[in-house]
């Protein structure tokens, strides 16, 4: 890695994260929920619960199975920061910094292209997730995703198993979207069989999370309390080109208080690369088609697909903005253009995002951790979405020690042992 490139990337990343170095947190869609979750998760860990599932304090002291269903990786990382005596607020911000830095570093290692990395960093949807939504799971997911592509390119299958497992632990719904894309990408690299093997092993390793989450959902009110109907949150083409920056929420119809724009520089690269698609390598042709498909899919209810249960779990179609966020810069890295055009794209990307590197009103300044640790909310955006259908003496058992949980833990443990056996013998034979 070029030291100059590393220096440039580091400086620009610090600039993009500068709002996180101020005191307190900021008003956001999910920030308060994450602060409560970090406080409760770390408290349960400190009490000896190595994989928290049932929290006896949440839901007004009745208990709540929140951690059976929410992605665990970001909360393990945040808890590690919290155990170093950082406050809950600073632990959340440190986790944002870590995963954002990781995403930029892994993307650069994947593409070895500084201008593309700058475009990847300065993309509006990244700042929506950081400073508008405080979408911890999606920030963590983006921190791991480029590593998966890097492992496929390098044919590093041991690390691919780990990265795929971490991907699933960071955001299950987005994993369902990107795993098929990763598989298709591996086919362009003639490593589809190895990817499939790595994926199967990673599914076994991560079964401690996704298996109980899928099975135990039926014991909750999840399917009866949904507030969000995906087909009512389709961004229009106009919104994808430009929509005013806001710090509110996605609303039904066009009355959104949040921006869904791809970014002017991103659109320029997308159009130019589409006009030159015949000159691109097969992997970049694939992702370019994937980008256009995602734009159509997220902006229309094609064939009523957003009414299907599997897609309803995504909640918001505009979450697919993660696809152009990573893939358009990747295409840019393989685009044969003049130095003038490259410099123009970099300057444009930084300039049009200059006002997106900011937060809304300050919040939780000088608030003690005890406020979050003793919170009795449910810490979910949709009220009661994981509320047990029945509360009785066996409710906590169902969500913390039932057979499906014991089985999933055993599968994960055996998968970790199998992983060690397979790859230790692999390295000994080399």
TrEMBL record:
Looking at the UniProt entry, the stretches that span the membrane are 91-110, 130-152, 158-185, 197-216, 258-277, 286-306, 326-352, 397-422
Q: Which domain of life is it from?
A: Bacteria
| Keywords assigned | Membrane, Transmembrane, Transmembrane helix
Q: Does the keyword Transmembrane apply?
A: yes
Keyword set includes Membrane: yes
Q: What is this protein called?
A: Membrane protein 6-pyruvoyl-tetrahydropterin synthase-related domain-containing protein
State the taxonomy lineage.
Bacteria, Candidatus Amesiibacteriota
């Amino acid at each position: 890695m070029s030291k100059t490139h590393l220096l440039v990337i580091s400086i620009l990343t610090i600039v993009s994260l500068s709002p996180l170095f101020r005191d307190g947190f900021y008003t956001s869609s999910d920030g308060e929920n994450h602060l409560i979750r970090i406080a409760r998760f770390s408290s349960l860990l400190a009490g000896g619960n190595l994989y928290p599932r049932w929290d006896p304090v949440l839901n007004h002291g009745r208990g709540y199975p929140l951690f059976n269903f929410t992605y665990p990786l970001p909360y393990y990382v945040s808890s590690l920061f919290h155990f170093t005596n950082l406050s809950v607020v600073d632990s959340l911000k440190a986790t944002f910094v870590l995963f954002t830095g990781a995403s930029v570093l892994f993307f650069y290692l994947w593409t070895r292209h500084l201008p593309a990395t700058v475009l990847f960093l300065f993309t509006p949807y990244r700042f929506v997730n950081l400073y508008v939504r405080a979408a911890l799971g999606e920030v963590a997911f983006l921190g791991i995703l480029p590593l998966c592509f890097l492992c496929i390119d390098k044919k590093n299958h041991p690390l691919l198993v780990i990265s795929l497992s971490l991907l699933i632990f960071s955001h299950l719904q987005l994993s369902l979207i990107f795993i098929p894309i990763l598989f298709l990408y591996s086919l362009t690299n003639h490593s589809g069989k190895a990817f499939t093997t790595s994926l199967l092993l990673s599914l076994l390793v991560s079964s401690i999370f996704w298996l109980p989450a899928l099975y135990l959902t039926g014991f909750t009110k999840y399917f009866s309390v949904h507030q969000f109907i995906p087909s009512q949150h389709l961004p229009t083409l106009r919104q994808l080109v430009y929509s005013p920056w806001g710090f509110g929420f996605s609303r039904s119809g066009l009355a959104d208080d949040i921006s869904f724009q791809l970014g002017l520089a991103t659109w320029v690269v997308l159009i130019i690369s589409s006009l030159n698609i015949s000159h691109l390598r097969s992997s970049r042709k694939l992702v370019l088609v994937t980008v256009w498909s995602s734009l159509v899919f997220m902006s229309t209810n094609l064939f009523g697909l957003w009414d299907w249960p599997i897609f309803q779990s995504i909640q918001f179609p505009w979450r697919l903005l993660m696809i152009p966020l990573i893939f358009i810069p990747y295409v840019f890295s393989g685009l044969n253009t003049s130095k003038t055009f490259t410099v123009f794209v970099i300057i444009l990307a930084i300039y049009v995002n200059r006002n997106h590197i900011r937060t809304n009103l300050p919040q939780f300044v000088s608030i003690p951790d005890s406020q979050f640790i003793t919170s009795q909310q449910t810490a979910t955006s949709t009220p009661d979405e994981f509320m047990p259908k029945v509360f009785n003496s066996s409710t906590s058992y169902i969500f913390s020690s039932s057979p499906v949980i014991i089985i999933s833990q055993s599968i994960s443990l055996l998968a970790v042992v199998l992983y060690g056996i397979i790859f230790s013998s692999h390295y000994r034979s080399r």
